[in-house]
Amino acid sequence: MGLRGYYNSIIYNIKKHIIMIKLNNQNPPPPHHHRTEATHTHTLSNRFAFT
Predict the structure, then answer these.
(1) Residue 7 to residues 3, 13, 19: CA-CA distances in angstroms?
(2) Please, are residues 39 and 25 in contact by the beta-carbon 8 Å criterion?
(3) CA angle in degrees (0–180, nearest 5) for 2-50-48
(4) What is the pTM of this model?
(5) For residue 38, which phi and psi values (nearest 5 degrees)?
(6) How far apart are the C-alpha atoms of 27 and 22, rounded to whole Å?
(7) How far is 42 from 10, CA to CA, in rounded Å?
(8) DSSP letter for each residue of 1-51
(9) Can you tell me the distance from the alpha carbon of 28 to that of 39, in angstroms, rounded to the nearest whole number?
(10) In the structure, what pLDDT confidence band is assigned to residue 51 with cuts at 50, 70 and 90?
């Protein structure tokens, strides 16, 4: 596989985990409505920061 492929798979796994965490944060409805707006804007800013 080589060192390069090894690092690429690590980066791929990290990106996959980040996507999973984002999806998990979006799925469960928080108990408070204000909290949803806060987390929504937070994920949006995170999305812009990652791209």
Answers:
(1) 6, 10, 18
(2) yes
(3) 160
(4) 0.39
(5) -65, -45
(6) 9
(7) 26
(8) -HHHHHHHHHHHHHHHHHHHHHHHHHSSPPSSHHHHHHHHHHHHHHHHHH-
(9) 12
(10) very low
